[in-house]
Amino acid sequence: MSEAKSTITRVGSVPTETYGQAHIHWLASAAASGARELTVGITTIAPGGSSPLHRHPNCEEVLHMLAGEIDQVVQGQPTVRMRAGDTITIARNVKHHAINSGTTLAEMIVVFSSPQRQTIVE
Question: What pLDDT is stored for residue 21 in this prediction?
Protein backbone atom coordinates (compact mmCIF):
# COMPACT_ATOMS: atom_id res chain seq x y z
CA MET A 1 0.00 0.00 0.00
CA SER A 2 1.38 3.40 -0.97
CA GLU A 3 1.86 6.19 1.53
CA ALA A 4 -1.03 8.67 1.76
CA LYS A 5 -0.26 12.26 0.75
CA SER A 6 -2.00 15.56 1.31
CA THR A 7 -3.36 17.35 -1.75
CA ILE A 8 -4.63 20.91 -2.16
CA THR A 9 -7.36 21.60 -4.71
CA ARG A 10 -8.98 24.89 -5.74
CA VAL A 11 -12.40 25.62 -7.20
CA GLY A 12 -11.83 26.60 -10.81
CA SER A 13 -9.11 23.99 -11.32
CA VAL A 14 -10.98 20.84 -10.24
CA PRO A 15 -13.21 18.47 -12.22
CA THR A 16 -16.77 19.76 -12.60
CA GLU A 17 -19.91 17.80 -13.47
CA THR A 18 -23.42 18.93 -14.32
CA TYR A 19 -26.56 17.03 -13.32
CA GLY A 20 -29.66 18.82 -14.62
CA GLN A 21 -29.05 22.41 -13.57
CA ALA A 22 -26.79 21.43 -10.64
CA HIS A 23 -23.07 22.07 -11.09
CA ILE A 24 -20.68 20.15 -8.84
CA HIS A 25 -17.03 21.14 -8.35
CA TRP A 26 -15.17 18.07 -7.00
CA LEU A 27 -12.74 19.23 -4.33
CA ALA A 28 -11.76 15.79 -3.03
CA SER A 29 -12.32 12.33 -4.50
CA ALA A 30 -10.27 9.44 -5.81
CA ALA A 31 -10.03 11.19 -9.19
CA ALA A 32 -9.76 14.83 -8.03
CA SER A 33 -7.26 14.49 -5.20
CA GLY A 34 -6.44 10.86 -4.53
CA ALA A 35 -8.84 10.70 -1.57
CA ARG A 36 -9.21 7.17 -0.25
CA GLU A 37 -12.35 7.34 1.89
CA LEU A 38 -14.70 10.12 0.77
CA THR A 39 -15.81 12.58 -1.90
CA VAL A 40 -16.32 16.30 -1.22
CA GLY A 41 -17.72 18.91 -3.57
CA ILE A 42 -19.38 22.28 -3.82
CA THR A 43 -22.71 22.26 -5.62
CA THR A 44 -24.48 25.28 -7.06
CA ILE A 45 -28.01 25.52 -8.46
CA ALA A 46 -29.42 28.71 -10.02
CA PRO A 47 -32.89 29.97 -9.03
CA GLY A 48 -35.59 27.71 -10.50
CA GLY A 49 -33.03 25.00 -11.32
CA SER A 50 -32.79 21.50 -9.92
CA SER A 51 -30.80 18.32 -9.84
CA PRO A 52 -32.47 15.29 -11.44
CA LEU A 53 -34.00 12.56 -9.30
CA HIS A 54 -31.08 10.26 -8.48
CA ARG A 55 -29.59 7.87 -5.93
CA HIS A 56 -26.17 6.72 -4.72
CA PRO A 57 -26.05 2.92 -4.29
CA ASN A 58 -22.57 2.81 -2.74
CA CYS A 59 -22.58 5.67 -0.24
CA GLU A 60 -24.36 8.03 2.10
CA GLU A 61 -24.60 11.72 1.21
CA VAL A 62 -24.38 14.70 3.54
CA LEU A 63 -25.43 18.05 2.13
CA HIS A 64 -24.76 21.32 4.00
CA MET A 65 -26.29 24.60 2.79
CA LEU A 66 -23.88 27.54 2.52
CA ALA A 67 -26.17 30.06 0.78
CA GLY A 68 -29.62 30.33 -0.77
CA GLU A 69 -32.41 27.82 -0.25
CA ILE A 70 -33.58 24.58 -1.77
CA ASP A 71 -36.49 22.22 -1.48
CA GLN A 72 -34.92 18.83 -0.75
CA VAL A 73 -37.08 15.98 -2.01
CA VAL A 74 -36.26 12.60 -0.44
CA GLN A 75 -38.12 9.39 -1.30
CA GLY A 76 -40.66 8.47 1.37
CA GLN A 77 -40.34 11.75 3.30
CA PRO A 78 -42.01 15.17 3.17
CA THR A 79 -40.15 17.79 1.13
CA VAL A 80 -37.90 19.93 3.35
CA ARG A 81 -37.05 23.60 2.75
CA MET A 82 -33.34 24.03 3.50
CA ARG A 83 -31.55 27.33 4.10
CA ALA A 84 -27.98 28.39 4.87
CA GLY A 85 -26.73 26.48 7.92
CA ASP A 86 -29.01 23.45 7.40
CA THR A 87 -27.56 19.95 6.92
CA ILE A 88 -29.23 16.74 5.72
CA THR A 89 -27.94 13.16 5.68
CA ILE A 90 -29.36 11.01 2.90
CA ALA A 91 -29.11 7.24 3.26
CA ARG A 92 -27.45 5.02 0.70
CA ASN A 93 -29.57 4.19 -2.39
CA VAL A 94 -32.47 6.55 -1.49
CA LYS A 95 -33.86 8.59 -4.39
CA HIS A 96 -33.64 12.35 -3.95
CA HIS A 97 -33.21 15.69 -5.68
CA ALA A 98 -32.88 19.38 -4.88
CA ILE A 99 -34.87 22.29 -6.33
CA ASN A 100 -33.68 25.88 -5.90
CA SER A 101 -36.83 27.44 -4.49
CA GLY A 102 -35.22 30.80 -3.75
CA THR A 103 -34.30 33.90 -5.71
CA THR A 104 -30.50 33.59 -5.36
CA LEU A 105 -27.88 31.00 -6.19
CA ALA A 106 -28.03 27.98 -3.87
CA GLU A 107 -24.56 26.87 -2.79
CA MET A 108 -23.87 23.79 -0.71
CA ILE A 109 -21.09 21.47 0.38
CA VAL A 110 -21.75 17.84 -0.46
CA VAL A 111 -19.89 14.91 1.10
CA PHE A 112 -20.14 11.23 0.13
CA SER A 113 -18.87 8.29 2.17
CA SER A 114 -16.95 6.84 -0.79
CA PRO A 115 -14.02 8.22 -2.82
CA GLN A 116 -15.70 6.85 -5.95
CA ARG A 117 -19.34 7.69 -5.41
CA GLN A 118 -21.84 6.15 -7.81
CA THR A 119 -24.82 8.15 -9.08
CA ILE A 120 -27.79 6.64 -10.85
CA VAL A 121 -30.13 9.19 -12.46
CA GLU A 122 -33.72 7.94 -12.42
Answer: 94
